[in-house]
Design a protein that fits this description.
- The protein is α+β, with helices and mostly antiparallel strands.
- It is globular.
- 35% of the residues lie in helices and 43% in strands.
- This is Nuclear transport factor 2 family protein.
């Protein structure tokens, strides 16, 4: 028997996998046509979205979730993005989930400290 995850469960698994660097699990959560728009760029399709997550994953230390709100297929996660190049960055992530797969992601945060930290690292 196959059980489809709820949108909330999908979001929880997404953030747990990303924080752990478990990109196989993360890839399995993304719909082939996932559409990502965020403060650092955009991505169309699962492979492009995964590449972006892997890129930021190189400096990711922790995802400190403050709140998660789910209503139907929509989930908003409010968290501090903790990296080794910048102070914790308050971040809002909204995702839409269809049949256990993430189809749309929108992320917003002030990227200035993170960009400065990435620049200093190079």
């Amino acid at each position: 028997m196959t059980t489809t995850r709820t949108a909330r469960e999908t979001a929880e698994t997404y953030f747990t996998a990303w924080e752990a660097g478990d990109f196989d699990t993360l890839r399995g959560l993304l719909a082939e046509n996932v559409d990502f728009v965020g403060a650092l760029g955009t991505a169309s399709g699962a492979e492009a979205a995964l590449a972006g997550l892997k890129g930021l994953g190189q400096v990711l230390k922790k995802i400190d979730v403050k709140a998660r709100v789910a209503e139907g297929d929509e989930v908003i996660t409010w968290f501090d993005l903790c990296t080794n190049v910048a102070p914790p960055t308050p971040t809002a992530n909204w995702m839409h989930v269809d049949d256990g797969k993430v189809t749309r992601i929108r992320v917003t945060f002030d990227p200035r400290a993170l960009l400065a930290g990435l620049e200093a690292q190079n």
